Amino acid sequence: MSDLNKILSDISQRKFKPVYLLYGDEPFFIDQISKAIEDTVLDEAERGFNQMVFYGKDSKVEEIVECAKRFPMMAPYQVIIVKEAQHLSSKMDGMSQYMAQPSETTILVLCYKYKKPDNRLKVFKNMKKHGLFFESKPLYENKMPQWINGMLQSKGYRIEPKATQMLVEFLGTDLGRIKNEIDKLAIVQDKTAPITPQTIEDNIGFSKDYNNFELRNAIGRRDALKTHRIINYFGENPKDNPLVLTVATLHSYFVQLLKIHGVKDHSKNNVARVVGINPYFVDELLIGVRNYTMKDCSRAVSLIRELDLKTKGMGAYQVSHADLLKESMVKIMVH
Fold first, then answer.
1. pLDDT for 119-138, tens place per residue?
2. Burial class (CB in 10 A: 0-12, 13-18, 19+), 173
3. Is the pLDDT of residue 141 over 90?
């Protein structure tokens, strides 16, 4: 993230490179940098003559190079953005000569999604001498709360830890979707008050009481009644509560309990560090550690793996997902 912030900071300060190769498996950051260049380099009047967008599927390398060699019209730069540039990978060597000495008045942005450049090729060696390479890597789920908090803080908003966890649980690591939901919240949220679980429920539609996070806590407390209420709710709303996500969440939960059992120091900060979570959530995990021995947790992990296989049709036919989940939770929670 530090590399990304440095690039965006340089762009905002008008420190440009003649070539940007933005590649990798996370399209969100590639689009973020590309959009920053698109919005910053030229003003609205200059863009008409000096900003061009190509699409790799429909473009020729020779055409892009020819445009890159031109001089801007009544502007300090021209901007050329090549989207889906990965479709030109087999023809990239056609840019080698240009990349050896790129125009100082052209900013060429290659959006090379879901693919890595072959650094053995001359074209990429030349690019590295004069341009900027940025690999856009997906964020792991444990990094999502920090990213969400950072995005909200940059807009002047605060969010409660549980509300952050709800966004992560329901939206996963889809950064584009999370940004869209945050933009919606920004329209209705007062900056003087934090975003709460109730805010999420009212404006995005996720239940603050019936979700995987609350299911984990209910199981951790061995609260059979609440566990079955949540599972029944999931059964009535399967589209909003896919079992595959619930299985992954429960598996992660008991693996976390096993990690905590494996360390002697159960102080809040140490547990947060070992498990990789916000200290706010440690108390609930410690309740689970007290209620489930290491042997219980190992058995729970095995039962959840069995559940995963059954949801895929192995050994359980014509049984609803809700019933499969209930059966597994009863086995886990019974001593």
1. 889 999 999 999 999 999 99
2. middle
3. no
Tokens, residue 120? 């053995």
Q: Is the four-CA dihedral 13, 15, 18, 23 of positive or negative sign?
A: negative
User: In whole angstroms, what is the distance from residue 128 CA to residue 258 CA?
Assistant: 45
User: Strand runs (DSSP E) across 48-91, as ranges?
Assistant: 51-55, 78-83
Bridge-partner residues for 23, per DSSP? 112, 135
The residue ranges of DSSP E strands in the chain, in sequence order, are 19-24, 51-55, 78-83, 106-113, 132-136
What are phi and psi for residue 184, nearest 5 degrees?
-65, -45
Q: DSSP characters for 175-241?
A: HHHHHHHHHHHHHH--TTS-B-HHHHHHHH---SSSSHHHHHHHHHTT-HHHHHHHHHHHHH-TTTS
pTM (2 d.p.)? 0.74
pLDDT at position 246 over 70 = yes
Contact 96, 10 (CB under 8 A): no
Q: Which of 127, 114, 63, 121 is nearest to 84 (CA)?
A: 114
pLDDT tens digits for range 185-207: 888 899 999 999 999 888 887 78
Distance CA 331, CA 214 (A): 19
DSSP conformational letter for 140: P
Q: How far is the C-alpha of 206 from the C-alpha of 196, rounded, in Å?
A: 12
Please report the sign of the dihedral spanned by the C-alpha atoms of residue 157, residue 163, residue 165, residue 171. negative
Residue identified by tokens 């296989």 is 309
Percentages helix, strand, coil for the chain (3-state, rounded to 5) are 60, 10, 30
Closest listed residue to residue 123, CA positions, set 153, 100, 152 = 100
